[in-house]
Amino acid sequence: MSTTASIFKDKSAEKAADLKHRKTINYNISKYNAIVPIGKSQFVDVDMVRERAKNIKWKALENLDVYLEKFEKNLLRKGGKVIWAENAEQACEAVLKICREKSCKSVVKSKSMVTEEIHLNDFLEKHHIESIETDLGEYIQQLDNEPPYHIVTPAMHKSKEDVARVFNEHLHTPLTLTPEELTLVAREKLRHNYVTSEVGITGANFLIADTGSIAITENEGNARLSAGWPKTHIVITGIEKVIPSIGDLAMFWPLLATYGTGQQVTVYNSIFSGPRQSNETDGPEEMYVILLDNGRTNILQDPVSRESLYCIRCGACLNACPVYKNIGGHSYGTTYSGPIGSVITPNLKGLGDWNHLSTASSLCGNCTEVCAVKINLHELLLHNRRETVKTGKGNMMEKIAWSMWQEGMLHRSMMNMGNGKVKNWMINRMVKSWTAHRSDMKFPDKNFNQQWKERSKGK
Fold this sequence. Notes:
Elements: H1 3-16, H2 19-40, H3 46-62, H4 64-77, E1 81-85, H5 88-101, E2 106-109, H6 113-117, H7 120-126, E3 130-133, H8 136-143, H9 160-171, H10 179-196, E4 199-202, E5 206-208, E6 213-218, H11 222-228, E7 232-238, E8 242-243, H12 249-261, E9 268-272, E10 286-292, H13 296-300, H14 316-320, H15 322-327, H16 338-349, H17 351-354, H18 366-370, H19 377-390, H20 396-410, H21 412-415, H22 420-430, H23 432-435, H24 448-457
Parallel strand pairs: 1-10, 2-3, 2-4, 4-7, 5-8, 7-10
Antiparallel strand pairs: 5-6, 6-9
Helix pairs in contact: 2-12, 16-19
């Protein structure tokens, strides 16, 4: 068993037994479940919309090179700059180079899973540049020195009492503050940083090929401030975020809002098409877009796994997953948790160390059922498992055990060997991994053939 798999099992066992954690998560997800149907009511036929969105993402991914080059050409025409990053190191170095050119001491950063993926905050801190999270959930997590717990809701696992404790410990506020008062404290602290930071960093929900623009959807306005106030705006985004046309946003924005938070549309929806133009009064003087691969082309070259790149990061599959709701986001030990994380992480980071995530699933199919763009997540989890076995990256003892099981199932004579007592001993005492979390198996004293022959004699 790999180190990552061992850590995952330990963390999962700990969280699954934490009743307070489970209560908080179930409460927060129940609020999500109550409001999503209201958001869906805006669509005459929500399944048709999901299917159309999937088809658009299919078109974009099948012609990814064409649309990315089109995006680059149109952004350059408006004065933007594009940097292609093959991996996390190149992306971080590109950001550092820009920051040093601007003599930057601090950056404001809006919520971005890609920057979490490349561990940008830690990298900048090592080079003495302060990176300040401006999304409230991310800000809470940064204060508490924790990574995001959820793709959409970074501090989902924290109750209002937990947040009050974090603010008390790090900002010395009273423990009695209400959620509204805590929000006002965060706003006061962060507003100063927008006007003093030299660089603003955001992600992108969508890259629009035909206009060379990036689209961001949010509820707090922090991304808009991070992009608009500092003189330099850096966008870091995965290459799979491209969509063909600005007209596609009319479908993707409400779809993402509904499946992400249950809203008909989020509060702030912004389109950035380069730095400030000559006829504009505000905006950054320079805009850079870093297009990150970091393993995505590995997924792209697999005709089956490619479908996972359709993901629009709504987080619906996490909220529906019984495994995620029991073990929590941090147990996965990686940026992307839940079903979509279990699908893409082994392909982004390597099956050898991360194939265990694809087995951390009940295969109930609920993730596929709720996916905003109809990704067949449970089938992709099975595909990862098959690839693990095919490439020899699985557990050797497990492989031997299943080979023996297969032989037994294919040959009746082997199944009939031994009586019930022998079989009970073999399964319940020798196969410890099976009985560790299950009750003992009980085989009958007589096998099926014996019982069938006895019953058939009297007929």
